[in-house]
Specification:
single chain; alpha/beta; 17 helices; globular
């Protein structure tokens, strides 16, 4: 693509005149110098810990001659040291510019797709995957971009961030569009909005799930207000908004909407309302049934095989957007009966006498949410296998320990991405919460051993939560991602337990 066309919509200056640069060809765009080749444009992004301007020389040595850099870095020694044949394009913000030039380079794919953005503290992964499942079953070819990865037409691709870098988003959208995808449901994180990753995505629908304090710190949001404001920006970028009006911050989100709105609720305050909520427990599922009302009409017997009130909220969001897209009620209800998301309250049907659940909950808020939800179901013992990420503060570990000590009958403390920290040091930090607790504690630093022990000690009617890993297929140890398949380990352990029981009988 010609450089001048690539820069359409971006205010910039250059060390060369417009006449000199307008016909320069750009083969591709790179924001990591390791991806650079001859004919590429290198975009120097400024991150929390790494500044791309430090790598312009490496990019030059790999054949790059066109550099997109920030104006306030014009006198940076790395830029000044480039040879005279280097073309320097100066912009106010390279992240924002990367969004627009990626949009241009891949020929504006989001304009030809139905794009559904989902934001909120909890529920993004579940809602996006539920929507995709329902739409695909209804015949609308739909892809997903989010925490669990990218999925479309039986193609899967890993993602580094919940919301990928803007270049990756537009690259993926172009691939989806070219392969016949019609609709895309995307997790939109506050960081993705803050760093302009979705600045040039043409959203048709935006969904707000809920909001609670998260991602607040020196490398993320400096305050809850900033976190909220970043989330709210999505609703200035969409054609239609779907809002959980029960959330205490809903009005602040609505105040930012510049489009038509539909709301959902379980307290009768929304356009779409859930009523007659009941919990349903089977060995292979912990679910919930409810009716819903809209425009004075009541629809009965909506079932979703995921537990708790938060599952009702997720289902209402799915129903709202699918109705907006013209999906029939029959197709919506039939699809919701069987829809599941890997690692999100995922019930493993491996023991005939106990419920084994894998969930991504890894902090105090998410653990409290899932454990209190499970208390709505009959059980013998509530058991949680849990750890805490290496390098985190003792306060974060105390939050985890305090919740487990309060909610559970038995805690199995183990490792969870310890990285460079001794797992026993992490476990001992968590165990301080159990000093005056009636919750029994078992310490097993090896996570595989801990999972096997959890399966071995399972009794009739127990609910066991394997918390933290969720969809992840690795353990982070000493800076390396070691393959680790939690569900396969649990299935193997259950198989051995059942074989032993059969032999003894």
């Amino acid at each position: 693509m010609k450089l001048f066309k690539l820069m359409d919509g971006v205010n910039f200056t250059s060390n060369l005149s417009l006449e000199e640069i307008k016909n320069i060809d750009i083969k591709d765009i790179a924001y990591n110098f390791n991806s650079c080749e001859d004919g590429f444009m290198f975009v120097a992004l400024i991150g929390a810990t790494v500044d791309g301007h430090s790598f312009v020389e490496e990019a030059y040595n790999r054949g790059v001659r066109v550099f997109l850099v920030q104006k306030n870095m014009e006198n940076d020694k790395n830029i000044l040291s480039l040879n005279e044949d280097a073309i320097k394009i100066y912009v106010d913000n390279t992240r924002r510019a990367l969004s627009r030039i990626s949009h241009n380079f891949f020929l504006h794919p989001s304009k030809e797709l139905k794009i559904i953005g989902v934001t909120g503290t909890k529920g993004k992964t579940t809602i996006t995957n539920y929507i995709s499942s329902v739409l695909n079953k209804a015949g609308l070819n739909t892809g997903v971009i989010g925490t669990n990865g990218v999925f479309y037409n039986e193609i899967a691709e890993d993602t580094v961030n919940t919301t990928p870098e803007s270049y990756e988003i537009h690259r993926i959208l172009r691939k989806m569009l070219d392969s016949g995808v019609q609709c895309v449901t995307m997790e939109v994180s506050s960081g993705g909005i803050m760093h302009y990753r979705v600045e040039d995505v043409d959203f048709d629908v935006a969904i707000f799930s809920n909001l609670s304090p998260d991602h607040i710190g020196p490398k993320e949001h400096h305050s809850f207000e900033h976190y909220l404001n970043c989330k709210a920006k999505l609703f200035k970028m969409t054609k239609f908004a779907i809002i959980n009006v029960d959330d205490k911050h809903a009005n602040e989100i609505i105040a930012n909407c510049e489009c038509n709105i539909e709301t959902f609720s379980i307290h009768g305050k929304g356009d779409l309302n859930a009523i007659n909520i009941n919990h349903s427990k089977k060995i292979d599922s912990l679910g919930v049934t409810f009716d819903y009302s809209k425009d004075g009409h009541i629809t009965k017997s909506c079932f979703i095989c995921s537990p708790g009130i938060f599952s009702v909220y997720n289902a209402l969001a799915v129903i709202s957007v699918c109705k907006y897209l013209g999906i029939s009620q029959e197709n919506i209800l039939n699809a919701l009966k069987s829809v599941k998301v890997k690692g999100r309250v995922e019930v493993l049907n491996i023991l005939p006498y106990a419920n084994i659940i894998i969930d991504y909950a890894h902090n105090g808020i998410s653990l409290e949410n899932i454990l209190q939800t499970l208390k709505n179901y009959e059980y013998n013992r509530l058991i949680c296998l849990v750890g805490s990420i290496g390098g985190r503060t003792e306060t974060r570990r105390k939050e985890v320990g305090d919740v487990i000590a309060k909610e559970c009958d038995l805690a199995i403390l183990t490792s969870y991405n310890p990285n460079f920290e001794d797992p026993m040091d992490i476990i001992n930090d968590i165990s301080k919460s159990f000093i005056d607790s009636s919750c029994h504690v078992i310490k097993i630093p090896d996570r595989e051993d801990a999972i096997r022990e959890a399966i071995n000690i399972a009794q009739e009617g127990d609910i066991i939560v394997l918390a933290g890993k969720g969809h992840e297929n690795y353990q982070l140890i000493q800076g390396k991602k070691i393959p680790f398949n939690e569900s396969e380990i649990a299935k193997d352990a259950a198989r051995k337990v059942l074989e032993k029981r059969k032999q003894l009988s």
